[in-house]
Amino acid sequence: MKNFKRTLITSALPYANGPVHIGHLAGVYVPADIYARYLRLKGEEVAFIGGSDEHGVPITLKAKKEGITPQDVVDKYHGMIKASFEKFGISFDIYSRTSSKIHHETASEIFKTLYDKGAFIEQTSDQFFDQEANQFLADRYITGTCPRCNFEKAYGDQCESCGSTLNATDLIDPKSVLSGNKPVMKETKHWFLPLDQYEPWLREWILECHKEWKPNVYGQCKSWIDGGLNPRAVTRDLDWGIPVPVPGSEGKVLYVWFDAPIGYISATKEWSSGWEKWWKDPETKMVHFIGKDNIVFHCIIFPVVLKAEGSFILPENVPANEFLNLEGDKISTSRNWAVWLHEYLEDFPGKEDVLKYTLTANAPETKDNDFTWKDFQTRNNSELVAIFGNFVNRALVLTDKYYNGEVPTPGELTEYDKNTLSEIATLKTLVEKSIETYHFREALKNAMDMARLGNKYLADMEPWKVVKTDPERVKTIMNTALQITANLTIVFEPFLPFTTEKLRGFMNLDKFGWQELGRTDLVTAGHKINTPELLFEKIEDEAIQAQVDKLLATKKTNELEQAKVNPAKNNIEYEDFAKLDIRIGTIIAAEKVSKTRKLLKLTIDTGIDKRTVVSGIAEYFEPDKIIGQQVSILINLAPKILKGIESQGMILMAENPDGSLVFVTPPLKTKEGSEVR
Q1: For residues 343 and 20, what is the distance between their CA atoms, to the nearest angstrom?
Q2: Best CA proximity match to 457, nearest among 420, 415, 492
Q3: Which band of pLDDT confidence, cut at 50, 70 and 90, is reported for residue 564?
Q4: C-alpha span between 25 and 2 (Å, rounded)
Q5: Among 391, 541, 593, 665, which residue carries the largest CB count within 10 Å?
Q6: What is residue 398's predicted lDDT score, i.e. its pLDDT?
Q7: Is the separation of the CB atoms in 369 and 324 below 8 Å?
Q8: CATH fold for domain 6-111+258-326
Q9: What is the distance of C-alpha 335 from the center of its chain?
Q10: Does domain 119-236 sit in CATH 3.40.50.720?
């Protein structure tokens, strides 16, 4: 393994269209902070870079919804996010923003460098255009029915129901989110990054040279590469973003996923005049901390940009985490189903480390995990209070009681004393190995094992009993306990910085370096400790119930919103309706479509013919129970290939407020082929 002189740590730039929630923390910022604090504690040279992503369609949608400008949106949420991170103790060396002048200059410069080198492909293509709004539509400005699962509110770049990556032109019945109208196709010019030309290099660099990457990261990269890469646009027709810095590009900006990762570079420039050693010296190790939804951008697209530019280093590792759910449901900002960091800091003042501990202990490192308020309470009361806090309190209170707060001079150590103290060095090695391989959950467990070690030692030694029969022996016991306590101020520093600062205050100690961890003489005889206090406090049921009630209220609000009837769509002419040929048909065969969750393959007798229709109703109906069901079917819908099956029409369904579906069918048996007028 190569030894590096310094480490550059980047953390994914959160969109400045809303506050930060616990999913962001668990996926990106807590593990990145642990890693940065650990390396600094070892005395290594570290740059921890963060910032807000302030361009892209989500920002403009938020501005439109709130009736303000995009700049107003990013100013509001950048300030909120930055303040929350500072209060929570995320130790960025700089937290910048992509609307800054230095970022615009840096991104423009890199684009221009690639443009001058001929690294882009210039292509003219047809793109959706909203005639009423008089603008081209970015992918997120278009919604429609997913061609893979029939979800009716899929975006032009992704279906949030089945997770499929889409092109806007794949959508069935696409609509503009600006006007609600069906967009038209209009010719436009864009610049593309030819990812396909870099396939051999990516295959070598990732699949051969970085097999140590986490399986979820390596696997997703392999899937993308094996599936074949295509040129990807680096520009967009928008009025919010960094203008494309070449002739003939009026009205176009850099695509947000081209400009956002460059934010790491521009932030480093803003932070240090010596920024080039962090980005261009091969002695620098670069590590990207991200969530799994950003893997392709940080492992494939951004590295290709850096490779094409030619003077930058490439990431050494990208330890992406999976997703954190909340109380059994996917975190959703649009549904307000989240624990927002700024609200947590108000509701649980002084308990920053309790949330850090819970999110690390339950980190979604290899699979999606679930945050529950009950688990949060249990982690605090049964681990932080009952193990870590209990040991520290016993050690300090007994020292205060027996020796007036002075560290006693130890006598001869027993084998048990020696074995206990030697275990500290063993745990140090385990913590180091886990952090350096990005297994932070395991590293925290090893750190807590040191507190467990101390707890068990005092429980076994029972100094409160021994003091009555062998007071000299108690001096050795308490000195040993205090050495363990001092070591806890080091081992927990990367994980619980507010706690270790508090504990050092109790112990009257300065901050130790990581190299001191494992020493058994950190506190010397006669050293005076301060009056002990509780390190942690129990979280009562009432505080937890208040948080659960808040979520239940959110859930109720969402249900009420869903129960509202959608407003009527724009008027159409009778001639438009007359174009629809809707007939009564009967389902004569039905089967599930393999490798899908929602699709059924139906054979329908339309009275005219027997045809196949693929329908997204599998979640609500069993195939064998709908044979003989009469349906209303649109028979003159253009055929569409879905999962390799040609679908020749669409059956009409009514959707209840809870999302369940009901067949639109005549109340009495009706002859197949009868027209619906």
Answers
A1: 10
A2: 420
A3: low
A4: 30
A5: 391
A6: 97
A7: yes
A8: Rossmann fold (3.40.50)
A9: 17
A10: no
Phi first, then psi: give them for residue 511, nearest 5 degrees: -75, 130
299: exposed, middle or buried (C-beta count within 10 Å: 0-12, 13-18, 19+)?
A: buried
Mean pLDDT, to the nearest integer, of 24-31? 97
Residues contacting 3, CB < 8 A, separation 6+: none
Residue whose entry in the numeric block shows the structure tokens 């949106």: 73
Strand-pair partners of 634: 582, 650
Host H or E run for residue 85: helix 70-88
Q: What is the 3-state secondary structure (H, E, C) of 358-425?
A: HHHHCCCCCCCEEECHHHHHHHHHHHHHHHHHHHHHHHHHHHHHHHCCECCCCCCCCHHHHHHHHHHH
Identify which of 619, 581, 577, 584 has the alpha carbon closest to the alpha carbon of residue 600.
Answer: 619
Q: What is the DSSP letter of 241?
A: S
- In the structure, how many helices (H) and strands (E) does the chain have? 22, 24
Q: Are 4 and 48 in contact (CB under 8 A)?
A: no
Q: What is the mean pLDDT of residues 455-475?
A: 96
Helix, strand or coil for residue 511? coil
What was the pLDDT predicted at 660? 73
User: Domain 372-516: what homologous superfamily?
Assistant: Isoleucyl-tRNA Synthetase; Domain 1 (1.10.730.10)
Label residues 243-277 b or e (16+ Cβ within 10 Å = b): ebebeebeebbbbbbbbbbbbbbbbbbbbeeebeb
- What one-letter code names the amino acid at 635? I
Burial of 132 (0-12, 13-18, 19+ CB in 10 A): exposed
List, for residues 145-186, the tens digit of each pLDDT value. Answer: 888 888 888 888 778 777 667 778 889 999 988 888 899 999
- The Cα–Cα gap between 192 and 254 comes to 11
- 57 in helix, strand or coil? helix
Bridge pairing between strands 630-634 and 650-651: antiparallel
The label of the residue with tokens 């539509």 reads 137
User: What is the torsional sign of CA 206, 23, 165, 59?
Assistant: negative
Q: How much is the average pLDDT of 358-381?
A: 96
Q: How confident is the model at residue 575 (pLDDT cuts 50, 70, 90)?
A: confident
Res. 565 pLDDT band, cuts 50 70 90: low
Return all residues near 61 (Cβ < 8 A) that are at least 6 apart: 17, 140, 141, 177
Compute and round to an integer the Cα radius of gyration of the chain: 30
What distance in Å separates the CA atoms of residue 441 and residue 107, rounded to the nearest whole number? 36
Distance, CA of 159 to CA of 139 (rounded, Å): 11
Torsion of CA 80, 82, 84, 87, to 10 degrees: -140
Check the CA dihedral 385-390-395-396 and report its sign.
positive
**Averaged pLDDT score across all residues of the chain:** 93
**Count of CB atoms situated within 10 Å of the CB of 288:** 27
Given a cut of 90, is residue 598 above it in pLDDT? no
Assess contact for 81 and 104: CB atoms under 8 A.
no
- The reported pLDDT for the residue numbered 149 is 82
DSSP β-ladder status, 172-176 and 184-193: unpaired
Judge contact between 91 and 136, C-beta under 8 A.
Answer: no
H/E stretch holding 456 reads: helix 440-461
| Sequence spans of domains, the chain | 6-111+258-326, 119-236, 372-516, 574-663
574-663: CATH topology: OB fold (Dihydrolipoamide Acetyltransferase, E2P) (2.40.50)
Q: Do the Cβ atoms of 78 and 98 come closer than 8 Å? A: no
